[in-house]
Amino acid sequence: MSPSLNTVSSGSTKDEGGGVAPQNKGSWSSFLKSIASFNGDLSSMTAPPFILGTLSLTEFSAYWTQHPSVFVAPAAEKDPAKRAMLVLKWFLSTLKPSYSTRNDKYGSEKKPLNPFLGELFLGKWEDEAGTTELVSEQVSHHPPVTAYCIQNRKHGIKLEGYNGQKASFSRTIHIKQIGHALLTLTPPDNPSAPAETYLITLPNIHIEGLIYGKPFVELNSCTYISSSTGYTGKIDYSGKGWVSGKKNSFTATLYPTGKEKDILYTVDGQWPEAFTIREGSGKHGTVIDNYNSRNAPITPLIVPALEQQDPWEANKAWEKVITAITKGDMDTTNAEKSKIENAQREYRRREQSEGREWERKFFTRSDKAEDWWESLAKGMGERIEAEKTGGVWRFDKAKAETARRPFHEGLSPTG
Ligand code: HC3
After folding, report:
1. Residue 191 is part of a domain; what is its CATH number?
2. 215 CA: nearest ligand 1 atom
3. 137 lines ligand 1 (CB under 6 A)
């Protein structure tokens, strides 16, 4: 049975001992040799059995909201600058769940399952923030792209986004994240005003500790959050250098867009541990919040029981593969994966010969981003690279209202 059925945080198989077990040392060095020339989609990275994870990338979308009350907090703040700061705080609080939950004690980051086109991951969180709903769908296979929408209707807040990854090797594995997230909220001081938006860029990643067989994620350079209310959050990531520095560190600043020197808030810390939010610039401003990433209460994601899941839902679709990986049974793992891959090839062949496309259940593609979206990106020196994600993927409310199980009647991921 999948270890990831009820909560995302209990998802991956952990190597509690840390490092590669003696019997796996040979296949680990073969893996390191094989990735030295690696370049491309994560799906083409072949990994030895003991580093195969049991979480699919569609499930990773849930890491955005392990703390629903932090997610909805901006919706209650009347001052726009403080609201932007709370959005920044929430984003920083998602870094530990996203990039180190699976890897808490020792470097043991595993290779996730590569979603197939049409794979769904649906769930919700219920807590003092009310109900927060999650929809995640694999919307493209070539290039691989996952889209998601997370919304809390009570607080009028919605996060939608899509992302793909491009991997390359140079001293270690580098992963470029392509895509964006967009947070939309209704300002509480003026509920009749148009919703405000925050465009969020995604950090690039490299893997540390490969040589020691203890892989963990480190984030690179910087990302931005640009708001329609005229504020920019800039997050600079850094790691442990040869001489100084601590792993998984960052410094973030919030300033009026275009005035990078007029810092309103500064945040610094280590994202898997803790961070401090101060007023103004540098280390001397008044502390207004200390956030402890380790103790922050996690609300478990509720996903339907396996028997109630549709064949296109991740846990159901990957059930046999997950069981086989958990048992270390590689023959069955490969046989069950092949069933999915072969059926997917057949679906694509048929669609091509019939001149139609796979039907996405919750998201719709457009060829380019709307102008206001491009202009938020431009303010951060970025561009919406629609050509790299098979288009721009937006949550489609009309589709979502009619989508229900069985999602693709008569069809299953294995054909
Ligand atoms: C790089 C990564 C796969 C991609 C994961 C992404 C970028 C997926 C989208 C989420 O929103 C955020 C996210 C978090 C973690 C990222 C994974 C960490 C490790 C994994 C590599 C492919 C694993 C490499 C295998 C090994 C054995 C070297 O660790």
Report:
1. 2.40.160.120
2. 29
3. no
CA-nearest of 227, 231, 250, 224 to 239 is 250
- CA distance linking residue 326 with residue 13, whole number of Å: 7
Q: Is 207 in the pocket of ligand 1 (CB under 6 A)?
A: yes
DSSP assignment letter at 115: P
Whether residue 163 has its Cβ less than 6 Å from ligand 1: yes
Q: How many CB atoms lie within 10 A of CB 381?
A: 8
Verdict on whether the full-model pTM lies above 0.85: yes
Closest CA to 93 of 69, 114, 129, 61: 69
User: Is 197 near ligand 1, meaning CB less than 6 Å away?
Assistant: no
Q: Is residue 38 part of a domain?
A: yes
121-134: b or e for each residue (b if 16 or more CB lie within 10 Å)? bbbbbeeebeebbb
Look at residue 47 and tell me if it is in a domain. yes
**Alpha carbon distance 385, 245 (integer Å):** 33
Q: Report which secondary-structure segment, H or E, holds 133.
A: strand 130-140
What's the CA-to-centroid distance between 165 and ligand 1, angstroms?
9
Domain that holds residue 205: 5-304
From 109, 119, 325, mutation site for ligand 1 pocket: most ligand atoms within 8 A of C-beta: 109
In a domain, 391, yes or no: no
Largest CA distance in the chain: 65
Q: CA 316, CA 325: separation in Å to the nearest integer?
A: 15
Domain presence at residue 108: yes
Distance 195 CA to ligand 1 centre (A): 32
**Tens-digit pLDDT profile for residues 274-324:** 999 999 999 999 999 999 999 999 999 999 999 999 999 999 999 999 999
Instruction: Encode pLDDT of 162-171 as tens digits.
Output: 999 999 999 8
> What does the DSSP assignment read for 224-265?
EEEETTSEEEEEEEE---SSS--TTEEEEEEEETT-TTS-SE
Torsion angle, alpha carbons of 365, 404, 142, 150, to 10: 70
CA neighbours within 13 Å on the CB side: how many for 189? 9
106 pLDDT above the threshold of 90: no
Is residue 179 within 6 Å of ligand 1 at its C-beta? Answer: no
